Amino acid sequence: MDSSLPLGRLHVITDTRPGADPVRVARAALAAGAPVLQVRVADHHTDREAFDLTLTLVELCREYGATCLVNDRLHVALAVGADGGHVGAHDLPVHAARVVLGGTAVIGGTCRNPEAARALRRAGASYLGAGPAFATTTKDGLPEPIGPGAIGRIAAAVDIPVIGIGGVTAATAGELIEAGAHGVAVVGAISLAPDPYAATRELLDVVERAARQRGRSR
Ligand SMILES: Cc1ncc(COP(=O)(O)OP(=O)(O)O)c(N)n1
Ligand SMILES: Cc1nc(C(=O)O)sc1CCOP(=O)(O)O
Ligand SMILES: [Mg+2]
């Protein structure tokens, strides 16, 4: 993907929990129209395991015309020809990720306040993941939820897309877009759904409707 193209509004992130089936869920989400897949692999997995899974998923993304991003392991992103990567506080800094992945890669950085958002923008981020928006049990050790208001303030601080993450569901995604987020990222809302295809369709409907509504009200 060319990083100058608009970034999709629904980022589906693979579930690292034991028993999750990332390939089945990703196939369903992509078939339903998810525009972005982020491959997130638990730290205990070897690079070879991460490579094998990511290669399968990048090929699926190609089949469906979706953007494929790789969380943390930028060498895996390069090796499989992914569109870019996502980095946070414990990963390579955004400016170094840009050196690794190159000038046209899609590079996301995690931020939790407007000051960090501006710094990541200056460092060369293409988009920001901002959260946790709401409470989540998917990841341990996160700070308290910051809510839609703070996500909106982050979005207002930068001129790149902001993606709200953390506890996002079809019931809450619209609030984040209304507050100013470009889109949302989800793990559990799709991975734990009885029907990941239907859950993706519902989230896409909510996000696209909220974005249209926001456009009309400006
Ligand atoms: C879209 C998006 N936003 C935030 C994150 C979190 O990244 P990070 O802080 O590096 O934490 P891990 O995902 O690596 O545990 C994300 N992955 N995606
Ligand atoms: C991986 C991740 N990062 C977050 C952050 O706020 O940085 S929240 C999160 C987990 C998102 O999973 P779910 O959609 O199931 O809440
Ligand atoms: Mg990370």
Automatic annotation (TrEMBL):
Entry's transmembrane regions:
none
Concerning InterPro entries, the annotation shows: Aldolase_TIM (IPR013785), ThiamineP_synth_sf (IPR036206), ThiamineP_synth_TenI (IPR022998), TMP_synthase (IPR034291)
Provide the binding site for Mg(2+).
D72, D91
Q: Where does 4-amino-2-methyl-5-(diphosphooxymethyl)pyrimidine bind?
A: N71, T110, K139
UniProt key word DNA repair? no
Cited function: Condenses 4-methyl-5-(beta-hydroxyethyl)thiazole monophosphate (THZ-P) and 2-methyl-4-amino-5-hydroxymethyl pyrimidine pyrophosphate (HMP-PP) to form thiamine monophosphate (TMP).
Specify the protein name.
Answer: Thiamine-phosphate synthase
List the gene name. thiE
